[in-house]
Structure formats: C-alpha cells, structure tokens
Amino acid sequence: MVLALNDNPPMSSKAKNGPARSVMVLGTTSGAGKSWLATALCRWYARRGLKVAPFKAQNMSNNARVVGGGEIGSAQYFQALAANAVPDVRMNPLLLKPERDTRSQVVLMGQVNEELSALPWRGRSERVWPRIARALDELRAENDVVVVEGAGSPAEINLMASDIVNMRIARHAQARCLLATDIDRGGAFAHLYGTWALLPEADRALLQGFVLNKFRGDAALLAPAPQQLQELTGVPTVATLPMWWQHGLPEEDGVFDDRSRASGTVTRTVAVVAYPRISNLDEFQALKNVPGVRLVWARTPADVAAADWIVLPGSKHTSGDLAWLRAQGLDRAVAAHAERGGAVLGICGGLQMLGEALVDPHGIDGNAPGLGLLPLVTVFAREKTVRHRTANFGELGGAWAALSDVPVAGYEIHHGQTAAHPQLAHDGQPVMPDGLAWQNARGNVLGIYMHGLFEDPGALHALFGASAPTLDATFDGLADFIDSHFDAGVLAGLIA
Fold it and tell me: Do 223 and 94 belong to one domain?
C-alpha cells in the first residue's frame, strides 16, 4: 500500500509528553542492513506527520557530507533527508575517518579533533560520552521520534565495556530495538540467538523484534525456525525483507556492490578506481541508475582495459592510495588510457593524484610524485576545507565539453591546496573559479575538487542526457517496502 505524504505540519515537540520515542536498529554483524532500515524508518515515521531525527553515536566511514557546523557520516545525512530534517552534526557526533590501518582522523561534533585523533581508540569512549549523550538528549527534546542506528554488533564481548554506540545508547534513550541479520549469508538464526544470548538480561528486554533481511525465496520455508527462536528468546520475528539490490540508496559505509548492472544496452563504461582509502564512494550511486552506463569498481589494470572513462575518486590518504595505485600497475594503465585520448576524471584526492607532486610540510598526508597528467602541485595545509560550493564550469574542450557553462552544486572536504606548476602552466588551465577544477590542454583529463558532480541534475543531464530518480522517490520507495513487509502494527507499536 502506498501512503500519501502528510500535508499537515509536523507535530511540535512541545505538544508531546516527555522526550521523543527512540527506535533503534541493531545488527548481528556489519552489513546486516542497519543503515538502509534506519533510513526507511525515518521516512515511514516522517510521513505520519511526526518530527523525526536520525542518530548514530559513532560512525567509522570515509563517506562524509558537509552540514552546518562541519561534517557527518553520509548515512546520517541521507537519513536526515529521509526524515525531512535539516542534517545536523548532533545526528552523528563522532565520526572516525580511517587514514591508515592503525589510525583514524577523529571528527567530534563536525570538527577534526587532533587530541582525540592521537589517543588510542579505547581511551576515547569516556572522554566523548558526555558530548554524545548531550547530543542525543537534545535531539530527543526537539523531536517526536529519534531513529537510532547501532554499529557492527551489540554483542561483541571485547567491546562492551567501552561501548558508546550500541546498548549504552539504547539504555540511555530507553530505545525499543530491532535486531536485523543478513539471512543471505547463512546462519541467520544462530546469529540472532547468539547475539541475544550474549547480551545482559536488562539489554535483552529492549529487543522488540528480529528482522530477517536480504531473503531470497518463499518465506514460508523458514518455518518453524521463527517460532522456535521466539520460544527460546521471547522475541518475535517481525519482518522478512526480500533481497532488493536496486533500492537506490547510496552504498553502505565501505561496501561495494559489484553486482550492479547497466540497464539496457551499454553505451559507456565508467571505471572508478577503488583504492584502499577511497572516500565518498556514495557519490557514484547515481551512475548505477543511468540507462546505458556500466559502473565498474577497478582494482587491477584489467578492470580499466575496456573503460570509456576512468575516475580517480576521493581518498582519505592520497599519498598512500597513490602508492597502492602504482603497486597495482594502475598508474601505467591510467597514463596509457589518457595517452590514447581516453577520458580521465579526478575528484578531490583524485585531482591531487593527477598533478605533478604532493607536498606535505606538516605531516598531514605524505609527499609523493603525482601522475603528471595535470600541471598542478598540491600542498597539504593544517586547516581542513569543509564547505558547500556552487560554481559554474567555464569553457571546456574534448571529452568534457558537455560541461561547458554548466553550474554545479557540491561540497569540499580536503586539506590540500592546489595550484598550477609555474613551468608547466601551458599544459592545462583552470576551468572553474578559485582553482576548483582544471583541464589539460588536450581536453581529455579533468580534475575537480567538488564532490557531488554525478549527483547534480544539471551535470548528470549534460553528461548523459538522463536523470536519476530523485532522493524523495527513493526514500518513499524504502518506506513503502517496509510498510509492506513488517507485521501489521509493529512500526506504529514501536512508538506507542
């Protein structure tokens, strides 16, 4: 059943008794579908005229979006949009952005915190808990419903003592919790029972229902397992959600969907290089929905061999990912593609890689020679640029000529400051104000600092003559989906 949007204004927080109801989505593992389900719940409750906010205490992701006050994880940004709310740093008070295998940049309330970044991760919890709790309390005071997303599993016994993102949050907010599992992987009922069994008794009481996600086949064949599980735990299975690859939501944090296929006849193959510290991979979601476009996540030279475009995306550790690129032989593959006249696009860290050199006087990222495809030098500054931007492309030639004079709205998140190499300026030119974008003289290599090029409707239409489904249509589709597959009355009952 498709439900119409409520035309009435949201209920004032002053009209309700006490703080917001909290509905929390937990998972038996990472990748269980927490972000997806939390987004759907945000839209489902918002369509009932309720004032809704998302919340995730701590997110580890290099997918981030710019909001007022700084940056938050992309998942909470989209959840806020689904809730018809203005994205806010309080919705993701702690963001960990992995730079290396043993180090993450810590973003607290939207801003980089060097002191916390230098601390061992176990030492951060108690330091940041008061600020996390305050952010949650403020959101609960201002809203009717807060949809909370957990992280990983709530039953990791080595992490329980320092937990600030799962059951400690659930207890603080007295949240009514759903526990989701990926049944496609197998062992789903064991995962659900094991998670329940490892939780303290008081935390078990917060579990209101189990959710089987990514199911293929006839749900009737699951019997009698759901009933047996309820007899063991007292917790009912409240939804069996079918597998749904093309729901339109950007990728979950750090997850690549290699099963994406182009709709219709393939007219253009776009290879996005998937280096280890790729950032903001979610901005390529729109390409999966453009007819005739095949999106490839490239990790080897063979992956780019048949590409029409090669894209070097953003990176949280540009010099390290550039070293990885060279180790795979992808530097030679990109150079050969460009030499043949093939289109190459660098976004943020990718733009920096395309230049002549990376210079790091402050130990921010690292020094390295660039790929030499754009006449640029990047110097890493201590200060981080985090802002929304709107700018017009100037006159472009060659492969990117369709973007000439097109206005683009996006966002910047970078330490690098890039300028033309004084001896090589004749090999390229700026094609946006303030050095936001550059093109080589031949016209086939383009670099841009702004994220979101493929999310901008005007740019998408200029490049492909097509448009992707709107975010609102995607959010409504998610809400309709859970409305159809949750047991009757469960979703309303969670906030009763």
Answer: yes
Number of domains in the chain: 2
Say if residue 224 is preceded by a cis peptide, omega within 30 of 0: yes
Q: State whether 100 and 221 are in the same domain.
A: yes
Q: Which two tokens stand for residue 46?
A: 């918002």
In a domain, 256, yes or no: no
The CA angle 357-358-363, to the nearest 5 degrees, is 155
- Which is catalytic among the residues 172, 317, 415, 451? 451
**451 is annotated as an active-site residue:** yes
Structure-block tokens of residue 347: 């976004």
The answer to whether residues 156 and 165 touch, using CB atoms and an 8 Å cutoff, is: no
Q: Does residue 277 share a domain with residue 397?
A: yes
Please identify which of the residues 348, 414, 415, 485 carries the catalytic annotation: 348
Tokens of 492: 């309303």
**What's the pTM?**
0.85
pLDDT in tens, 31-85: 899 999 999 999 999 999 999 999 999 999 989 999 999 999 999 999 999 999 9
Task: Please indicate, yes or no, whether residues 314 and 239 belong to a single structural domain of this protein.
Answer: no
At 225-269, the pLDDT tens digits run 999 999 999 999 999 999 987 777 765 554 555 555 556 688 999
Task: Give the residue among 264, 317, 268, 272 at the shortest CA–CA distance from 291.
Answer: 264
Helix (H) or strand (E) holding 485: helix 471-485
The answer to whether 172 and 160 are in contact (CB under 8 A) is no
Supply the range of the domain harboring residue 146: 13-247+474-493
Tens-digit pLDDT profile for residues 413-443: 999 999 998 776 668 899 999 999 999 999 9
362 carries an active-site annotation: no
Could you tell me if residue 5 is inside a domain? no
152 within 8 A of 30, measured Cβ to Cβ? yes
Q: C-alpha distances in angstroms, 412 versus 278, 285, 330, 449?
A: 15, 18, 26, 6
Kindly provide the b/e burial profile for residues 13-29, where b requires at least 16 CB atoms within 10 angstroms of the residue's own CB: eeeeeebbbbbbbbbbb
200 and 288, same domain (yes or no): no
- Are 208 and 197 in contact by the 8 Å Cβ rule? The answer is no
464 & 478 share domain:
no
Q: Is residue 6 part of a domain?
A: no
pLDDT tens profile 358-392: 999 999 899 999 999 999 999 999 999 999 999 99
